[in-house]
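quick one before i forget lol
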Amino acid sequence: MNIHDLIIIGGGPTGLNCAIAAERAGIDYLVLEKGVLVNSIYHFPVNMTFFSTSKLLEIGETPFISHGEKPTRREALEYYRRLQQSFGLRVRTYETVQRMEQLRDTRQGQYRIFTDKGQYETHSVVVATGFYDTPRLMNVRGESLPKVKHYYDDAHPYVGQKVLVVGAANSACQVALEIWRKGAQVTMAIRDDKIYKGVKYWIKPDIENRIQEGSIKAYFNSSVQEIHPREAVLQTPEGTLTIDNDWVLAMTGYVPNYTLLENLGLDIPGEEPRIPIHNPDTLEASLPNVYLAGVLCAGMETSKLFIENTRDHGELIISQVKKRLEQLVAH
């Protein structure tokens, strides 16, 4: 049996930040990541540039040097990869956490974690799973067709294709503009009567001008009703509309992996924003010695927390873990 003082679930920037704090505190820890290191960033669009500056993405008091003020996906992957190697962080990638059970009186915080590759016992747990791996589904007929994508990678596959982009936030607007400029015929389905007000200031006028001039066709106050191999059906203010369509890029956002959180035994309200129960001052969840870290603390309000405003979570959590471990030894 693998026994550790601390198991960190999630190998993204927040998980690595917690690991760095644990490493410095001399705590025996292990990070479990179901995909690759910083898996969410790896699955960002190939040519993506962050909205945040490199300084705001720094963790572990380690400078992040990029060619421009706002780093690229490639630079971020290099930065976090070097962090893991420089600190010698103990990370097991390609290992999926499935569930967790309490072993005995949890006033001492003993847990067993089950993965697809083994089992681990631990005193404390940090859940830093983010939200990018679970898309917010439209729940319409045809959404499971191969033509429907909830993640955007690169513009090239859509050259000369008829593409429906669903959504009106930053990702949807960026995707619509990029694939249109590469030669796609772009239509947008937007639930509200205008582009989302929070779209970045350098993107918003661009997409609005393209819509106004007719380069990109936008249906406001509209939603997707059905998807077929060569068509998509929209519900618009003028009624039902069927359009020719090759691809649907559903940029509808993402949500935490609530199935996993429930399998870990965490208490989660049934109503939105479905923020897992936790103490906002200590980040301790409904189970003793189990902590939430990073954007997970915002539940479905995924636009409220980012890497830059959760960088203190690691030290906050690890200070409590260390104190309780010391108390356990003293008794």
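fyi The radius of gyration is 22 Å.
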